[in-house]
């Protein structure tokens, strides 16, 4: 996938651990519009690629913005980017959207915790301008750690519900109360730490269908050792390829000139998703929704495998 050269035009310290990086083209112009909830790959100074949600206004009239939390146990991505200065050059991918607003929904319930506010910010700003029906529930340890809360309170105060310092046991009750009051046809969107999202999804599915729950997760699922894998065949465009136990589907296909885009190689970005025409996937990703996995119609080819001996795939 081709990368875009960008320049860091401005940096804002939002909280003690979160910085927002504003990105433009090298000539200072805007990179363009994107759909609310989208994310980009960012190639940092150490050549590590990480995925970050866009949190600027999505209409393209301002620079792209990504808010990055410096993680205590950073593997080099967030720590390196926090050392970037204004004027530095970076590379990014085109925006991709795994958390897109469902236009058929009667109402949108946005749920964010911590740095998970980033995609919800662009979605809330879009829905507010477009006159969409929505509410945003924002969980954070304290007001000091709640990035963008002043902006949200200024732009859409009646739609924002800040839950500050709320204990884990109370989070589920708060979401349940919100969904009881939500109109029929509501959709739920969740982003935050992995444990928080698991809990919120479980609560949401008690009130709305699984296909009405949308998540974004940039934490890779733990993968089993390759010794537990079995070989299988994949057919693509009439050609059959053997997938050995120690190689991924996407690696084998690309080695044979099939040109499948990939980025994270961890099952979290969605770049390598392909359509499943026959066969049963063994899903090992953290990018597809529960309904997408249950359908068996798509597969993240960088980590997932086949349950049987053969699958037929097509480009997504």
Structure description:
With 316 residues, the protein is of the alpha/beta class. It has 7 helices and 18 strands. The strands form 4 sheets. The chain has a 6-stranded antiparallel sheet with strand order 4-3-6-1-2-5. It has a 5-stranded parallel sheet with strand order 9-8-7-10-11, with helices on both faces. β12 and β13 form a beta hairpin. α4 runs parallel beside α5. Its cofactor is FAD; FMN. It comes from Gordonia desulfuricans. It holds the Pfam family DmmA-like_N. Keywords: 2Fe-2S, Flavoprotein, FMN, Iron, Iron-sulfur, Metal-binding, Oxidoreductase.
Write the layout of secondary structure elements.
Blueprint lengths: L3 E10 L4 E7 L14 E5 L5 E5 L10 E6 L7 H5 L7 E4 L14 E7 L3 H14 L3 E7 L8 H7 L4 E5 L3 H14 L4 E6 L2 H11 L8 E4 L15 E5 L2 E5 L5 H7 L17 E6 L2 E2 L7 H6 L2 E3 L4 E2 L3 E6 L1
Helix pairs in contact: 4-5
CATH fold-level topology of the largest domain: Rossmann fold
Uncertain segments are: none
Beta content: 25-35%
Summarize the helix and strand pattern as letters: EEEEEHEEHEHEHEHEEEHEEHEEE
Mean pLDDT across every amino acid position = 92
Placed side by side, the strands forming the largest sheet appear as: 4-3-6-1-2-5
Summarize the biggest pleated sheet. Answer: 6 strands, antiparallel
CATH class of the largest domain: Alpha Beta
Net shape: globular
**Residues in helices, as a percent range:** 10-25%
The CATH superfamily of the largest domain appears as Nucleotide-binding domain of ferredoxin-NADP reductase (FNR) module
Global Rg: 20 Å
Structural class determined from secondary elements? alpha/beta
Q: Number of DSSP helices?
A: 7
CATH architectural grouping of the largest domain: 3-Layer(aba) Sandwich
